[in-house]
Design brief:
Number of domains: 2
Largest sheet: 6 strands, mixed
Number of strands: 19
Number of helices: 10
CATH class of the largest domain: Alpha Beta
Strand order of the largest sheet: 5-6-7-3-8-9
Helix content: 25-40%
Structural class: alpha+beta
Order of helices and strands: EEEHEHEHHHEHEHEEHHEEEEEEEEHEE
Radius of gyration: 24 Å
Shape: globular
């Protein structure tokens, strides 16, 4: 197995007596996009600044596969680019801003012209090259900032909340373009965000960070479907998270009590005691009561629709089945089934879609 592109070990950053970062280990593989997610103040941006050599750690190491020798800092800075939340453009034209790094590296003018026009076309800003940087909208300015970073052909691209100041339509368009470009370029990327939708769209792996620590790292689908704590489940949008207790095993399924309700989960060794039960809303099926037939799904609960929220491409349907459960359903299905508030329906979900989290004492504060 090849060595990771980037390895972090025992990394600590303190400002005075306050510990901002305390990361035991983290590895980033060559060519992958790792999204670091977590609440504001978790230490995500500080970690990026340390990787970028903009700050020095209090203790620990950040190792790059390509670095050896005394000039490590300079070699690292030459191989990475960073995009910040604010575009931080220089005075002058868009062309001047994109070309700045190449000019510093004394790249021949003819190459600069070619590279600037190529990257500008890739980001849809060719028509802005002669415009003043001060005249740009927020979305245009951030596209220029990304172009300025990409034109240096970095091995490692660091993105620190690049969409945070953009309105939703502008962000959606830039995210789609960024996803296309990064998939095409195949560079190593670390993307910091507190928006899970951005991370899910872009990332190969997610690292959840809180209070300066990396709490969970894994493939994006693994962190979404199998969060290891109640707080992570809430952050990644599980929505249906309930306090329960293991009641036993029947017919090969684990029985979990949620008050007077019992649900079934896949039986795994070592499950016992008080637990959190997590079911993602996209894994819940809703069918009108007059259409419901035996479907072989282990968990099938009759209830009443309490709320229908139009979220654009889909609805969030909240059903009271003796416990409140949310489901995401497309507008087409809502219309075809004629779903409405106070309608009696069945909410169903498979046993394998029930994720169990041990309910440790320190997690009760998140409940």
């Amino acid at each position: 197995m090849s060595r990771p592109y980037l390895e972090i070990s025992g990394l600590i950053k303190r400002y005075g007596a306050r510990t901002i970062l305390d990361i035991e280990e983290l590895a980033v593989n060559r060519g992958e996009l790792l999204a670091i997610i977590g609440p504001n103040g978790a230490g995500k941006s500080t970690l990026l600044r340390l990787i970028a050599q903009l700050e020095k750690p209090t203790a620990g190491t950040i190792r790059f596969a390509f670095v050896q020798g005394a000039n490590a800092g300079l070699e690292i800075r030459r191989r990475l680019s960073m995009v910040f939340q604010d575009s931080l453009l220089l005075s002058g034209t868009v062309f001047d801003n994109i070309a700045y790094g190449l000019k510093v590296r004394k790249t021949p003018r003819i190459q600069i012209e070619k590279k600037v026009r190529s990257i500008a076309e890739m980001l849809g800003i060719s028509n802005l090259l002669s415009a003043s940087a001060g005249s740009l909208s927020g979305g245009e300015a951030q596209r220029v900032s990304i172009a300025r970073a990409l034109i240096l052909e970095p091995e490692l691209l660091l993105l620190d909340e690049p969409m945070a100041s953009l309105d939703p339509p502008t962000k959606d368009l830039l995210l789609a373009d960024l996803n296309r470009i990064l998939n095409m370029l195949k560079m190593t990327v670390i993307y910091v965000t507190h928006e899970r939708s951005e991370a899910v769209l872009l990332a190969d792996r997610l690292a959840f960070m809180d209070k300066g620590k990396i709490i969970q790292v894994g493939p994006a689908h693994e962190v979404l479907d199998h969060p290891i704590s109640r707080k992570i489940a809430d952050f990644v949008g599980a929505e249906n998270v309930f306090a329960g207790s293991i009641a036993g095993v029947s017919d090969g399924f684990l029985r979990i009590k949620l008050g007077d309700i019992e649900i079934l989960a896949v039986n795994k060794p070592g499950q016992s005691g008080a637990v959190w039960v997590s079911i993602r809303p996209e894994h819940v099926t809703v069918v009108p009561a007059d259409r419901c037939q035996a479907n072989g799904i282990q968990n099938n609960f009759k209830g009443t629709i309490e709320n229908l929220m139009n979220l654009g491409v889909f609805y969030r349907v909240v059903i009271n089945c003796g416990f409140p459960i949310s489901a995401f359903i497309t507008k087409q299905l809502v219309d075809s089934m004629g779903l409405r508030v106070k309608q009696v329906v069945y909410a169903s979900f498979k046993a394998e879609r029930v994720h169990i989290i041990p309910r440790e004492s320190e997690e009760c504060a998140y409940g």
